[in-house]
Amino acid sequence: MTVNRQLDSKQRFWAIPHRAVQIEDRFWQPRIAGNRRHSLPYQYQQLQSSGVLDNFKRVLGQADGAYAGPFWMDSDAYKWLEAASYSLATHPDPELEQWVDDTIALIAAAQERDGYLDTYFQWVEPDKKFTNLAMCHELYCAGHLFQAAVAHFEATGRRTLLNVACRLADHIDAIFGPGKLEAADGHEEIETALVDLYRVTGTERYLNLAIFFIGQRGKADSRFRWELGHLDEIAGKPGKPGLVNPQYYGSDEQYDGRYAQDHQPVAEQSEVVGHAVRAMYLYSAMADIVAETGDPRLLAALERLWQNVTTRRMYITGGIGPSNRNEGFTRDYDLPNDTSYAETCAAVGMIMWQHRMLQLTGEGRFADIMERVLYNGFLSGVALDSRKFFYDNPMQSAGDRHRQGWFECACCPPNIARLLASLGKYLYSRCADGVAVHLYVQGSARVSLDQGDPLILHQTTDYPWGDRIQLRLELDRPAEFALRLRIPGWCRRHGLRVNEEAADPAVENGYAVLRRRWEPGDRVELSLEMPVERVAAHPAVWQTMGRVALQRGPLVYCLEEADHPVPVARIVLSKDARFTVRFDPELLGGIALIEGEGWVPELQGWENTLYRPAGAEESYRKIPIKAVPYYAWDNREPGSMAVWISQDLIKQG
User: Fold this and answer.
1) pTM for this predicted structure
2) Which of 141, 256, 309, 343 could bridge 272 with an S-S bond, Cβ 3.0-4.6 Å?
3) What does the alpha-carbon distance between residue 342 and residue 536 come to, in Å, rounded to a whole number?
């Protein structure tokens, strides 16, 4: 049975759906348009050419040959469908809608009579279904199908994909649960997707199944351990389970479940471990369950995990997971620069988790992290032309790291597409006594107030370049409510005016709260001081000792060799270096440049020398430097890049 305790409704937020939000700025709107016009069509072509859709045709007898790609290929189609559905909800497109309909028809036709659907197992190992949960991704693929189905239903009102999802969910529910197959998913995803499915259908079994899956993690008799003891019996022969499963989980005798967050019951966890994407999807699901049940133990665990990742295991860009060995976490303060992994999918998951925590608590610190990841660790994952993508996002490069059009494991491109297409839902929320604005993006939002009165909130801003946000309230009649405006954690000084008069409201949980009787046409202006700041990392992060990063507003900056005559790792800042900001509309799609002066060591005397006594005739020369937003790097000619810049006691002269 589920619990229905209420969280503190005075603090909770409820996200305003993306279809009720219009984005009309010069920063995000072109990216959303590029996603719609370039990424989604390109990705649909890749679904065809990479064999993703052919796998469904093989199941139907319409194609033959070997199964294409890894076990989880189906999920690429599902994430694309989710992204396309979000796009259709705000931008009708007959051609895109036809592609969606054709893909759904293919998927529906491939579903088995009992509801099962996973083309790898249907084509390659039909007698090994649900035997290698640790690595074969059946439940993960199902989760992405559920989320695509919910997005499609909400966009179109049609149940063509939702019926497929419900049949598969019913099939899974018949197999898993107390007294049945008691196991978790090796790659979390189905848990949060089941909650989404429950919210749309009202079928409580789906919520209960999500709670069941969450409760399976960290058990002494973990199913993943059992699979290690039965490697000859489980699925995944093309992937060689005898090698792959032990690589990530150890052995039956020495089982290590950290890779899939299976080392402790989730309510007892305090440390982010293992595969970063898996962790983010797990924490998102835990937050969803807290929203439905009010479970205080899960909420307390989420708070501990949040403190651990944001104070010890997160890059300045909001990227997470430094290691490519496990695509995830290592230990506290281990944040290397040139080998940083920081997978784009993990950034997507981090945004999802922060957004859920924000709705649960109404605390701006979660919106601060959400914004940091969105503008930096996530946005770097897609090129300015919307046609190439980063899988991992390093903090430093020698010029040999570049975006690609597609990947054998193509999880990141459609993940980027689904977040960009649904970006509107991250901007605003309803709260118990009014409306909250989390992100400053020009456009508008349609809100229904408590008494049913409609409100259209018009936002005008050039954020993140400009420091002013103007809000105009379109109301049918006067209404009394609170308007909450987030004061970002990076902002040291802000100003507020209501109808041209200065205002100084209280700041509660990171939000300036304007409580008043609002008249139609009322205007609010918020100014956020945006100086260039040097940011230092904790001294325990030895990889950044003696270095600083540059940040302005929500944006982290970097140096690229394209703007400098030397590899940027040689550049040194003086302690008293000063910076100016200049907007260049022609560079990298239009950016605010940070300009200043740096120093580079002279190389005279180093000929045929690798080491010499420190301080021996060292000299430096001054050069102009330009810093560009981190998200925009690698969109020009190849060259070195660095986020962290050496800082010395050199005085400018």
Assistant:
1) 0.95
2) 309
3) 19
